[in-house]
Amino acid sequence: MPSKAPSTKLNIAVVGLGRMGKRHAKTLMYRVPHANLVAVCSNDETELKWAREFFKDSNIEVFASFDQMIEKEGLQAVWVSTSTNVHASMTTACINKNLHVLCEKPVSQNLQEARDVCALAKQNPHLKVMAGYSRRFDASYRSAKAQITSGSIGKPFLVRSQTTDLLDTTGFFVRYAAKNGGIFYDCAIHDIDLTLWLLGDVKPKACWAVGTITHHPELKELNDVDNGVGVVEYTNGCLGYYYVSRTQAHGHDVCTEVTGSAGKLSINVQPRSDFVELASSNGISHQVQPEYWERFEDAFATEAIEFCESVLEDKDVPVALDIGIQSLEIGLALQDALLSGQVQKFDEEGHQIKA
């Protein structure tokens, strides 16, 4: 049965007006009928200038102060779309102001801080606090999950997944990396989350990672790389293989393969922006999406719709905040493996064993 239509609209604000924050604001305005965008916020003057111009003919209030924004009368929910280093503090502040929250992944770069925020969310069950793992809302990944659940490939045991971005020549990525942490828990965390979701009841046992810098030497000072490979051994005989990159020449290339005892599922192995192919003397070619947004725009809209419905209809959020704890722990362990050159191991509960 389809869910009943919400009887009211949700008064929601977006904090963070970088590339993604702008897009989330527009999604709420144009693609989510039961969302009422009432405010946006940034502490960046360039972003504020854009917002004041873009929203000048609307009733949407532009704030330069997050603390002032969450005091806005009538505000019910906040979409936290800032750099990762302030996800936890802003989510905490929203919960303490009795506001519902959709927080982009991961909730923190620090495992204990992430656990503390999740504990606070559980202490306030009347609030809907959701983790923004957008690929769980993508139609293709949802179809793959349904087919795995139905037994179409037998017992799944191997996930090979990659998140690889178009090479950035503007300097944006290096500035972004300084705030959003290492490549494995900023970038591969989507692939790890998909693995936990698609394989079901598994926990990590050990992980290993290597990486290299091919285009962004500035990352050396940040103890990071622009290309990396990670392997995770999970329980129940399952494996995860992850390739992450910031330097693809052809475009944004996200794909996943799930191998089972009776078959294999492949999602977006040949990325394309449309269904046009050019045949010429140079061969046959097609275009690839330049950014994450073009691939997952519909997923973000579905995510926003389902978050608003969870508040307005008082339903459980589709992705609880604490779901991201295990993927964050694995991502941090992969980063440790990258930097140390050592295999990182986990205990029976799936927690990293620190040397």
Main beta sheet: 7 strands, mixed
The H-level CATH homologous superfamily of the largest domain, spelled out, is Dihydrodipicolinate Reductase, domain 2
Which CATH-level-2 architecture of the largest domain?
Answer: 2-Layer Sandwich
Order of helices and strands: EHEHEHEHEHEHEHHHEEEEEEEHHE
Strand residues, percent: 15-25%
Domain GFO/IDH/MocA-like oxidoreductase: 141-265
Family: Belongs to the Gfo/Idh/MocA family.
Protein name: NAD binding Rossmann fold oxidoreductase
GO molecular function, one term: oxidoreductase activity
Topology summary:
Elements: E1 10-15, H1 19-30, E2 35-41, H2 45-54, E3 61-63, H3 66-69, E4 77-80, H4 87-96, E5 100-104, H5 111-122, E6 129-132, H6 139-149, E7 156-166, H7 172-180, H8 183-186, H9 189-199, E8 204-212, E9 227-234, E10 239-248, E11 253-260, E12 263-267, E13 278-280, E14 283-285, H10 292-312, H11 324-340, E15 344-345
Parallel strand pairs: 1-2, 1-4, 2-3, 4-5, 5-6, 7-10
Antiparallel strand pairs: 7-11, 8-9, 8-15, 9-10, 11-12, 13-14
Overview of the molecule:
- This is NAD binding Rossmann fold oxidoreductase.
- The chain folds into 2 domains: 10-135 and 297-321, NAD(P)-binding Rossmann-like Domain (Rossmann fold, 3-Layer(aba) Sandwich), CATH 3.40.50.720; 138-295 and 327-345, Dihydrodipicolinate Reductase, domain 2 (2-Layer Sandwich).
- It is α/β, with parallel strands linked by helices.
- It has 11 helices and 15 strands.
- It is globular, with a radius of gyration of 20 Å.
- The protein has helices at 19-30, 45-54, 66-69, 87-96, 111-122, 139-149, 172-180, 183-186, 189-199, 292-312, 324-340, and strands at residues 10-15, 35-41, 61-63, 77-80, 100-104, 129-132, 156-166, 204-212, 227-234, 239-248, 253-260, 263-267, 278-280, 283-285, 344-345.
- A 7-stranded mixed β-sheet has the order 12-11-7-10-9-8-15, covered by helices on one side. Strands 3-2-1-4-5-6 form a 6-stranded parallel β-sheet, with helices on both faces. A two-stranded antiparallel ribbon has the order 13-14.
- The model has no long low-confidence stretch (mean pLDDT 95).
